[in-house]
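The passage that follows is intended for readers who have already worked through the single-chain material. We present the inputs for a multi-component assembly, then the predicted structure in tokenized form, and finally a short commentary. You are encouraged to pause after the input and sketch how you expect the pieces to fit together before reading on.
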Amino acid sequence: MPMIEHRVSYTLDSSLETIDRAEEKATRIATELGFAEDVVMQISMAVREGAVNAVLHGNAYAPDKKVTLAFEQTGGDLVITIRDQGKGMDLSKIPNPLAPENLLKTSGRGIFLMRSFMDVVEIRPSQTGTELKLIKHVHGPAAGGKEASQ
Amino acid sequence: MTMKVGSRQVDGVVIVDCSGRITLGEGSVILRDTVRDLLSKGNKKIVLNLAEVNYIDSSGIGELVSAFTTTKNQGGELKLLNLTKKVNDLLQITKLYTVFDVKDDEAAAVKSFK
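Having made your guess, compare it with the prediction:
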């Protein structure tokens, strides 16, 4: 597995540009790590959705609130953490977007897409912000580095 | 690549050729404004040709749903044409493939309107 720095992090404004930048960084790093093209797409989309939640629903575009985005390589995993400084969220109020009564809703699919595309999605809301952790396991040839180190 | 749209009439049906990304921000707004403009001018048979749309996020999916329901609520029909694999996969996993009338042939799409 090609090595990147073990951990890189960014502090970003609560803006639409941040969402695009987060997606671009995820695409670049996942590509450097050797993920297949379709998996890179999944990772970048999950990060985009996480950044959307942080900017819109967490920080609500507040100029004094920041989004932190971190990429970490631990063992065979790519671990991505996105934190906002909002008021947290009530996970119990997130509807199932696949339920027939919700299919025609125009929002509420972000977390579902993240869970569809990543191996692990952890959401830790608090009154000082929400921390989102997205994990993708490295499979196939890209996992060679991990196996070689054992 | 930002989103671009162009529309043309075929046998009373408006084909909206979309290209680029339908994502939160400009892409979603362009799609919303385009469909609303068509409806305001009395065009109620609409086909969104997504052949050149290479990326849609959850906001873009929401905008497609909004376009579909807005058109339907005004007595019209909106169909999707020529989905790329990425967009097709997204509509499959979100179960929206069962909601939209999806076509892969323009002539058939035009003929399918009553």
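Commentary: Residues 7-148 of chain A form a domain with the Heat Shock Protein 90 fold (CATH 3.30.565.10). Chain A touches chain B at residues 16, 19, 41, 45, 48-49, 52, 56, 97-98, 103-107, 109-110, 112-113, 116 (CB under 8 Å). How closely did your sketch match?
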